[in-house]
Design goal:
The chain has about 575 residues and is α+β, with helices and mostly antiparallel strands. It folds into three domains: about 1-150, 3-Layer(bba) Sandwich (D-tyrosyl-trna(Tyr) Deacylase, Chain: A); about 175-215 and about 250-445, 2-Layer Sandwich (BirA Bifunctional Protein, domain 2); about 455-550, Anticodon-binding domain (Rossmann fold, 3-Layer(aba) Sandwich), CATH 3.40.50. Helices cover about 35% and strands about 30% of the residues. Strands 9-13-14-21-18-17-15-16 form an eight-stranded mixed sheet. Strands 1, 2, 3, 4, 5 and 6 form a six-stranded mixed sheet that branches. A five-stranded mixed sheet has the order 23-22-24-25-26, with helices on both faces. It is globular, with a radius of gyration of 29 Å. It starts with a strand and ends in a 17-residue tail after the last helix. The chain binds zinc ion. Zinc ion binds near residues 253 and 304. Zinc ion binds near residues 253 and 430.
Length: about 575
Amino acid sequence: MKALQLHVDHVEYEPVRREGAVSEEVEPGVTSLREVVVLFASIEEQDDEEVADALLKEVAESMERLGADTLVIYPYAHLSNNLAPPMKALHLVRYMERRAREIGLKVHRAPFGWNKRFSLSVKGHPLAEQFRVMTRETIRVEKRTVAQQAQPAVIEEGETQHVQLGRELDLFSIHPILGSGFPLFHARGRIIRDELIKLIREVNARLGFEEVWTPHVFKSDIWYQTGHYEHYRERMFTLTARGEEYVVKPMNCPGHAMIYASRPRSYRDLPIMYSEFGTVYRNEQPGELTGLFRVRSITQDDGHAFVRPDQIEDVITSILREVVRVFELTLNGRIYSTLSTRPESYIGDPARWDEATEALKQALLKAGLSYEIKEGEGAFYGPKIDIDAVDSLGRRWQCSTIQLDFNLPERLDLKYVERDGTQRRPVMIHRAILGSIERFMGVLLEHYNWRLPLWLSPIQVAVLPVSEKNVGYARGVKDALCSVGIRTELWVEGTLEKRIRMAHQTRASFTVITGDEEEETGTMTLRDYKGRIVKGLKPPTFTSWILDLIKRRAANVGEIDGSLKTEM
Ligand SMILES: [Zn+2]
């Protein structure tokens, strides 16, 4: 059986004429339904009730995730060239209708054996369109693998959609020849990355993190010294050249520690903080790699603070306050914090652990965060705070980590001179706010259903001249917008209707249309993605409005709202 499952805002169909020898009796007239899932199904030669059941099960599971409760079974012969004889097909269609009711769905069924006129409007989200193939063979394979299946099917399905949309929107692509887990960021995807980096750069500046840069490959000696070689070996990419072994960095910490160690430090210098948007490489299991969510080239918004023990609380409080702001700006601000405490085997002085853990608690309190304690789940080298963000689909994503480390300063012999002249060890704090830029971008794209807020949007404005003779004026409008930093594209090719559709498909935030009328009056027509239109808009009015939205990093995803003051 082959089936195309569409989550629609609206579907309408009407039987027009009988198609073949087997056709059902129907009441004439138009059936019109809203907010349903339509299943166009082609029943094939080998199908039977078990195949129908298996397919329905998939559909029902998917509908549950979509929050849809009404299914329209629509017999549709055009998905296969291996169709079942009509009587058998009709039997299975009726069987599916009955079974769908039995498993608790509301069901409508389009008549079998009729030519139908139909129209529908599919929702735009990544799971709105799904193609399903179910055969006796699929069921057998599924039965064999169900026992050892580690990843739920939803991830794979979501992943396929995710990867496909990434390519369609020209954001990123993944190529088997380059290896899985190594996404390429296209120009539009790179813009989103850069906007996120820009945001964190501002955060770093407020916190006092100085941005540094370190290479991607180090000799293996350092990794022996840090202990990574021993504990992290299987996830590191190593290489040998001229008889020497090198490691492609799986983390940025040793580089930053060496910068710290490059000169003597006094208690007055601390805290010393370095940040880096460092791409690290981790050899994850191929089975664990899913779209942007788990990659092998990971760009962290990494940072390391070298602090005196008495500075832990203040430094972490200010980091946490920024974390809260970042998630309010980027997602919906819903976060969960956890504090992982001393495990059974640990290094260092237990009194120091207790003090540091208390400092973390105070910091959470001061930042206004409630938290859950994960007793004994800290790393052997220090306690940590993890922060999960929640997306619009209610999924929790582990993003920020603030990890205290008593071990690395010891291993790398990091020191500072105390007021009394004695040598002391700083505490190292590893912190990332977004975590992995790639993964965070994946979360954002799905959270916003691929239509990002204006400040993150790769195409903020698409300028569409009505006809060839309006191109000159349109170019002037485009140049003016570009000159103040608004990401604007001028689209000339194809009919206006086609370009408007393209603006919608590529998720351009706003469309500006300029024809004769606009040219004569020195104005523009603004169109948002919902099709709302404002005519006679003066370019400076639009520019200052949109610039303000971008500057404020407003949540506006491309909608004309009340803040646009239109003067005629
Ligand atoms: Zn680190």
